[in-house]
Every structure is written in structure tokens, then in C-alpha cells.
Write a structure and sequence with these properties.
Blueprint (H helix, E strand, L loop, with lengths): L1 H16 L7 E6 L15 H10 L4 E6 L2 E6 L2 E6 L5 E6 L13 H14 L4 H6 L7 H4 E5 L2 E5 L5 H7 L10 H6 L8 H4 L11 E7 L3 E6 L12 E6 L3 H10 L4 E2 L4 H10 L4 E7 L2 E7 L9 H10 L2 H8 L4 E2 L22 H10 L7 E7 L2 H15 L4 E7 L1 H9 L5 E7 L6 H8 L6 H4 L5 H12 L3 H18 L2 E14 L2 E2 L1 H4 L13 E2 L1
Parallel strand pairs: 1-10, 1-11, 15-16, 15-17
Antiparallel strand pairs: 2-3, 4-5, 5-7, 6-7, 8-9, 9-10, 11-18, 12-18, 13-17, 13-18, 14-18, 19-20
Helix pairs in contact: 11-13, 16-18, 18-19
């Protein structure tokens, strides 16, 4: 009898341990500490933005089309733009509704866009990039009729405008509901912080958010495309990566969102029967930058020598364990106008020759600053060793990120290892910071005052003809790769541990960290 009881308990334990999650429900284990708000006018954190995008549809959405991240119609079924790219008319689909059944009209779109500018939190600068401001919004954002929205922007390439107005910050909110829940003129910001019931028109509704515990989303019965395959999505707060990994292995959750590089490598090699590793190139890049206003880096040949001195493969394979893509271009793979340019391989002899030609046959000493994260520390050690082989003594200085970027923004560095996250999927989002010193971002921080590069970046940003625009970016990329003070190390690869019961996650994550599409996921 005792043996039978023990055996029964063992069987029950195994059944519980390996019980599958419901077929119509996706359960994600993730660290939700980064979640601050789910208000589309305020949210600016990557994973939280994926939830916001699920809850709030925009006029457009970002979709991979033939391998290129492209804005496509969503709430707007079509649009027209003036020849100079300044006057836009968006025509809404008929019969659109918010999740509570309220009709969605052009007035809701106008209210939502103006609300971003009035609240003026992190996303607002993107609308301001279009020339839309709190001061001019009455004249630049308005409804022509119930189905037609008009935007009057700066002259910009169409892809820039259509990309920026996509969710999350371009998500449309229910004007009537938001104003009914306004407190002390906050435009419903407090109300939308942790819920979206009735407020959005996306495929899902955020029904509950218990901080540090759980976020629950349910299918929107009024979504214009029809209900998505999954009825419910639950994000469980699990701060520890090891616990996340254990839960997905046991079948208690369908996805471990935050596994470590070591766990991802283990999964890649072991290939277990019940879970798989899913990867996708992220929308960011890692780079070394040299301050052109400092000593030896004033000479283009010295900067070129650094590019030939670096062991890119060692950084990708050793530091990143292979979870990165060699991309020496400022533009990520999968963008309009991208051309593959990877001309630099470690060539010590060539690097030494360039240094000698520049008048530094015995090298020099330089301060190399970076942040205190493990990845950056390890990258800095490899770079230091690579530079030592060509006679350059790099003194590594580790700083908290805030301190490092403060120094960087003041042009106070000599050499730095840093990264750049991309805000919208258009080459303009990279050409401006990396090539145009006039916008006072990365090129300016490194004192690279190159008018040819800046002019190309500006011309491409306003060119209305796609073929001509692609040619301008081709010229810029081919010039930049050799002339700029940037050494692009890699484009990171994101990864997840996913149950084999989950279908379509590979499609859903394309374009992450800029977009994530939960509607592409179903379960066996």
C-alpha cells in the first residue's frame, strides 16, 4: 500500500511537471522589471512596446516584405501624399471599432497624435522629427472628415513618415474613453498605464497588469482583421533567467524570453525534443568610435588602421558566442537601401603600415572607455589586445553607462565601445546619427565634421524617388565605410527558448526589437 502511494505521488508529480499550457493560451516567462507603462504616448521600452503594439493598432504597421522591414496599411486602407512629400491624407477603413465596440474615427487619430505631443514623454521627439509639434498641431494634424486624416509634415521620404506613425507611439486610443478617465488634465495617462480595455483597436486587450507578477492579454473581439489564433497571452514575471529556462523545459511556460547567452548556446547544441532556439537579427549595432578631434585620430589612416587591427570573428564567436552577425555597415540587414559591406578583416601588417604612413610607426597611447557590462568588458579586452599588436596601448576605463554617455555627449572621450538602438526602420534613422554631424548625434560626438557625408544623408532623407534614394544611400555607405571614425563590430542577434508546441514564433519575431507580431503565433 505504501509503495503504491509513493508510485501514485510520483506519477502525479511528473504529470504536473510536464503539463502543457492550454492550446489557446500562450504563457511567457519574462523579467518585466523594465515595464513602466503601457500608454502608447509614453512607453519606450522594447518588450513593453511589443505589448503596446498588440493592444493599439496604428494607421500603418511594420511588416517584413521580401526581407525588408516595411510600413504597410493597417487602420488606414490607403493614403495619398503631395509630390513634395509634405501633405498626407490617410483614408480609414470603414467599420473600425475599439475593443469595447466604440467606433474609431479620424477624430480619434487626431486626438492620439496630438496627445503624444501634449504629453511630451519619450516618444514625442519622433513626431517632432516629422515637423509636428505641440505649437503647430492644430494646423498640421486634423480630420478632413470622419474617415480622413490629414498630416502636414516636413519634406521627407515617404518611408520615414509611414514608419514613424506605426505603433507603439502611433497607436490610436479611444478619445471618448480616455477623456472620460482623465484626472487633473493628464489626458488619461494614469488610466492607460496598466490597462487597455476599450482604449485600443489592436488584436489584443490588456485586461490586467499586476506589477512584478503577471500581465494578461485577451483577444479583441472587435479587431478588424478578425480574432487572432490565441485567445489569451499571459506574461509571468520571472526575473531569473535560470528559472525561465527551467520552466520552458518543464512545459510550465511556452516561451522563456530572457535566457542567457550560455543557455542559448546550450540549446543550440543539444537540440532537445520539446523546445527549440529561435533567433533573429536585432535592430541595433555595436561599434567602436574614435574622436576625430583628438591627436592621432585626426589622421584618416590611423582610423583605417584600427579597422584592420580588430579581430571581428573573435568578438562575435568568443564574446557573443555566435549570437551576432558580422555587419560593418551603419545600416542593419533588412532595411531599404542596405548593401552588404564587410571589407575589413584582421590584417596586422596592413594596420602597421597605415600607422607608419601616418607618422606613428611605434603606435601611441589612448584611453578606451566603455560601460561596466560583462559583454563590453570582454569586448574591450579583445580590442586592447588587438591594438597592442600594432603598437597602440589602450588603457581601458570602465564607467557606469550614465557617466560614460555623459562624457561621450560632451565629446570628452578619445575612444569608446558603445551600441546604438534604432528607433524606426528606415535608413534615415542611421544615416542621421552616424553620418550627419549637423544633427549633433554620433558623428558630432566624434567631431567628424564631414560635409560630403552630411549632405548625402540629408538628400537621401528627403528624396521622394525610391530608386534615386537607394542610390544616394549606396554612395553614402561606400564612402562612410572607409572615411568614418566608426568601427562597426556586429549586429546583435536576439534569442528565445520556445516550446515546440508554439507555431509561428519565427515569423512573429522578425524585426525585433522594433516590432513583434503576436498575431502570427498559434499552438499545436
Amino acid at each position: 500500500m505504501k509503495k503504491l502511494l509513493v508510485l501514485t505521488l510520483l506519477v502525479l508529480t511528473l504529470l504536473v511537471a510536464y503539463a502543457k499550457t492550454p492550446k489557446d493560451t500562450l504563457v511567457i516567462a519574462a523579467n518585466t522589471e523594465i515595464f513602466i507603462t503601457l500608454d502608447p504616448a509614453v512607453c519606450y521600452e522594447t518588450f513593453a512596446a511589443a505589448v503596446v503594439t498588440a493592444a493599439y493598432s496604428g494607421l500603418t504597421k511594420i511588416e517584413p516584405v521580401n526581407g525588408v522591414l516595411t510600413p504597410v496599411p493597417e487602420l488606414a486602407e490607403r493614403w495619398e501624399v503631395s509630390p513634395d512629400g509634405t501633405v498626407w491624407k490617410f483614408y480609414l477603413r470603414k467599420g473600425l471599432k475599439f475593443s469595447n465596440g466604440d467606433p474609431l474615427t479620424a477624430e480619434d487619430v487626431v486626438f492620439s497624435f496630438r496627445r503624444v505631443l501634449k504629453i511630451r514623454k519619450s516618444p514625442a521627439w519622433l513626431f517632432e522629427e516629422l515637423g509636428l509639434t505641440a505649437e503647430n498641431m492644430e494646423q498640421t494634424i486634423y480630420a478632413e472628415d470622419a474617415q480622413t486624416v490629414v498630416l502636414k509634415t516636413k519634406p521627407l521620404a515617404a518611408n520615414i513618415v509611414l514608419s514613424i506613425i506605426a505603433p507603439p507611439w502611433g497607436g490610436i486610443v479611444n478619445k471618448k474613453l480616455v477623456l472620460a478617465n482623465e484626472v487633473n488634465g493628464d489626458l488619461g495617462e494614469a488610466y492607460l498605464t496598466d490597462k487597455s480595455i476599450g482604449a485600443g483597436a489592436g488584436p489584443y486587450v490588456v485586461t490586467e497588469w499586476k506589477r512584478r507578477e503577471m500581465i494578461t492579454m485577451e483577444a479583441n473581439p472587435n479587431y478588424w482583421r478578425g480574432q487572432p489564433p490565441l485567445k489569451k497571452i499571459i506574461i509571468r514575471d520571472v526575473p531569473e533567467e535560470t528559472t525561465q529556462f527551467l520552466l520552458v523545459q518543464r512545459g510550465d511556460v511556452d516561451i522563456a524570453w530572457n535566457i542567457t547567452t550560455e543557455q542559448a548556446a546550450q540549446l543550440r547544441e543539444s537540440k532537445p525534443s520539446n523546445i527549440r532556439l529561435v533567433t533573429t537579427p536585432e535592430q541595433s549595432n555595436e561599434y567602436i568610435a574614435m574622436n576625430v578631434g583628438w591627436g592621432p585620430f585626426k589622421d584618416e589612416r590611423v582610423r583605417l588602421a584600427i579597422k584592420y587591427a580588430i579581430d571581428y570573428d573573435a568578438i562575435i564567436n568568443s564574446v557573443m558566442r555566435g549570437f551576432a552577425v558580422l555587419n560593418q555597415n551603419f545600416m542593419p540587414i533588412g532595411y531599404f537601401g542596405y548593401i552588404e559591406l564587410n571589407p575589413f578583416k584582421r590584417d596586422v601588417a596592413k594596420a602597421k603600415q597605415l600607422l607608419a604612413e601616418a607618422g606613428y610607426p611605434n603606435g601611441f597611447e589612448v584611453e578606451l572607455i566603455t560601460s561596466t557590462t560583462e559583454i563590453r568588458r570582454n569586448e574591450a579586452v579583445i580590442v586592447q589586445a588587438n591594438l597592442a599588436e600594432i603598437g597602440i596601448k589602450a588603457n581601458i576605463v570602465l564607467m557606469p553607462s550614465g557617466e560614460m554617455y555623459k562624457k561621450y555627449r560632451q565629446q570628452g572621450h578619445q575612444m569608446i565601445i558603445a551600441g546604438w538602438g534604432i528607433d524606426y526602420p528606415d535608413p534615415d534613422a542611421l544615416a542621421k546619427p552616424f553620418a550627419n554631424y549637423r544633427v549633433k548625434q554620433l558623428a558630432w560626438r566624434n567631431m567628424w565634421y564631414d560635409d560630403y557625408a552630411a549632405d548625402l544623408a540629408e538628400k537621401a532623407g528627403v528624396e521622394q524617388d525610391s530608386a534615386k534614394r537607394a542610390q544616394l544611400y549606396k554612395e553614402l555607405q561606400e564612402y562612410w565605410i572607409y572615411k568614418s571614425p566608426f568601427v562597426m563590430l556586429y549586429q546583435p542577434v536576439g534569442f528565445w527558448a520556445v516550446s515546440n508546441d508554439v507555431v509561428g514564433f519565427e515569423k512573429a519575431c522578425e524585426g525585433y526589437t522594433l516590432t513583434f507580431d503576436f498575431t502570427k503565433i498559434s499552438k499545436k
